[in-house]
Amino acid sequence: MTEIILWAIGSISISLIGLLHVRGIFFTRELYPKSRELMDTMKNSKLEVDENSNVWKAWIGFNVGFGVGLFFMGVIGGYLAIQHAELLKTERLLLMFTVFCSGVFAFIAYRFLIKPAFYALCLPFLCYLAAYILIMVA
Predict the structure, then answer these.
(1) What positions belong to coiled-coil segments (predicted)?
(2) Coil, strand or helix: which one is 9?
(3) CA neighbor of 105 nearest in space, from 20, 18, 31, 25
């Protein structure tokens, strides 16, 4: 039962982080550059892959996609923990990929984002990892 609780905690936390990320783009200016000149440069910089887009639109899109991806991962993990705990215990591939992906998200935050995001993303990673270990040794 401890492993299911850990999985649920990891799932809830990664969902909340995803929602906060989307909030930071659409409802606050937390994920916007402080420099107005930089934002204008981003808006006027075309992407090589598509002349109709610009770096600012890509910035918004990537941030929203990252947040929605975190939210989705958490919702699926939480649903499995609450509604299908036995399936969660037997689907080792799903467990491994969830641990791996949450670890990659934490690494991305460590390497490219802000430190609070790294610390926040360590919580679901460690919860998923601990749950995985408990399921494997059971």
Answers:
(1) none
(2) helix
(3) 18
Give one DSSP letter per residue of 48-89, joined into a string. Answer: TTEEEEEHHHHHHHHHHHHHHHHHHHHHHHHHHHHH-HHHHH
pLDDT in tens, 71-89: 999 999 999 999 998 888 8
Identify the CA nearest to 11 among candidates 70, 89, 93, 96: 70
Which amino acid is residue 65, in one-letter code?
A: G
Digit-coded pLDDT (tens) for 24-76: 999 999 889 999 999 999 999 999 888 888 999 999 999 999 999 999 999 99
DSSP-based three-state secondary structure for 4 = helix
